[in-house]
């Protein structure tokens, strides 16, 4: 069980590093928005892996709150986004 949690943590870290490349080097603002949203999802997954590892359920409300904030943020930015100049 511990090996699987470590492997999932390492894979989450690798994917976060790859997504940071998209956030910092994205060609337009919509790519950056998707990257930030994916980083938030990876953070939520990391908290879930930590909750399973530590057998502590007190982080579950934080996971739910982060999911709601990520959804509201993505919808609001997508709604009021101005087209990029090309």
UniProtKB/TrEMBL annotation:
The chain crosses the membrane at residues 6-24, 33-53, 59-80. It is a multi-pass membrane protein. One of its GO terms (cellular component) is plasma membrane. Keywords: Cell membrane, Membrane, Transmembrane, Transmembrane helix, Transport. It comes from the Bacteria. It is found in: Cell membrane. InterPro entries: MrpF/PhaF-like. The keyword Transport applies. Pfam families: MrpF_PhaF (PF04066). Its main location: membrane. NCBIfam families: PRK07948.1 (NF005930). Belongs to the CPA3 antiporters (TC 2.A.63) subunit F family. This is Monovalent cation/H+ antiporter subunit F. It comes from Rhodococcus coprophilus.
């Amino acid at each position: 069980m511990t090996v699987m949690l470590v492997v999932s943590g390492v894979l989450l870290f690798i994917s976060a590093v790859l997504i940071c490349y998209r956030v910092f080097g994205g060609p337009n603002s919509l790519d950056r928005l998707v990257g930030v949203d994916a980083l938030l999802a990876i953070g939520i997954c990391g908290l879930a892996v930590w909750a399973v590892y530590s057998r502590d359920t007190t982080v579950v409300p934080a996971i739910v709150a982060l999911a709601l904030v990520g959804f509201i943020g993505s919808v609001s930015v997508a709604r009021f986004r101005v087209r990029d100049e090309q």
